[in-house]
Specification:
Radius of gyration: 32 Å
Strand content: 15-25%
Protein name: Retinol-binding protein 3
Pfam families: Peptidase_S41, Peptidase_S41_N
CATH topology of the largest domain: 2-enoyl-CoA Hydratase, Chain A, domain 1
Largest sheet: 6 strands, mixed
Strand order of the largest sheet: 1-2-3-6-7-10
GO molecular function: retinol binding; serine-type peptidase activity
Helix content: 25-40%
CATH architecture of the largest domain: Alpha-Beta Complex
GO cellular component, one term: cone matrix sheath
CATH superfamily of the largest domain: 2-enoyl-CoA Hydratase, Chain A, domain 1
Number of helices: 10
InterPro entries: ClpP/crotonase-like_dom_sf, Tail-specific_protease
Number of domains: 3
Structural class: alpha/beta
CATH class of the largest domain: Alpha Beta
Number of strands: 12
Order of helices and strands: HEEHEHEEEHEEEEHHHHHEEH
Amino acid sequence: ALSNLTQEELLAWLQRGLRYEVLEGNVGYLRVDDIPGKEVLSKLGQFLVAHVWGKLMGTSALVLDLRHCTGGQVSGIPYVISYLHPGNTVLHVDTIYDRPSNTTTEIWTLPQVLGERYGADKDVVVLTSGRTGGVAEDVAYILKQMRRAIVVGERTVGGALDLQKLRIGQSNFFLTVPVSRSLGPLGGGSQTWEGSGVLPCVGTPAEQALEKALSILTLRRALPGVVHCLQEALQDYYTLVDRVPALRNHLASMDFSTVVSEDDLVTKLNAGLQAVSEDPRLLVRAVGPRETPPGPEAEAEEPPGATPDVPEDEAVRLALVDSVFQVSVLPGNVGYLRFDRFADASVLGALAPYILR
């Protein structure tokens, strides 16, 4: 029992299930393999704030790795959630029902925490696997429902918060039974993660979850720059000038919290821009690393003033004009002229006699 351990022994136990570092791009990484309870955290809180949390507070985003966490103590849930809850207001995050005592316990975030809370403007990603269970699942589920974290990895095991091993009669057989359950985060709900597991926001094999999380954070780190560039492009180029202020304001106020891929970003931007502009021609698209975007750079490949080649042979010139221009006289002496593309002025000049004829 943890209650029988000295502070030094508790610290050694805690460090075995805890790993942290600052990754490239100033991304904090915190791996927790067993979520400790209130008793341990109250004894070791100052140490954790000074030597673990303090090292991660200066990061621009946080990855909470629960892929190897198969359980923990229910009393530790408020501590984990509270450090990621952006405000000082308390929030009801779950209600736990215990069958043997027929009681319910409400779980609220803490009104105050040692040290500082993680900034509300910083992204948080939770990594999960098919082994993530119990209390760790509840933490992942609550953070997902709060829209405070992006869950990346595999669907969790769908375990239970508390298990008891019961002997069957006087035999050597035992039955492990879930004896308490979550009634749903934020105060209620008929269905929770128990039995079905926590479904990730972005599904990927557990061993690739960290790499996927870092790529998502790279994209999200670029979002402010992308929005700024779009605002400048609209300001400088969009012909419907009277709609530009509304478009720029809409871009500035858009919620990008659910964007986890380029496709998400393109879809959201196009829906927002077209709703405000009512212009189906105003489109954003993602350009691959080997794809040349259309624009001034592409047009500059041909020197200004260059004259496209016009065939010298008269029959070929006539055939060219006949293939471009469809001419006929319809019933009622109605002239019909069709052409599907405007030619360069220099080409029209060279072919003028044939066009006139």
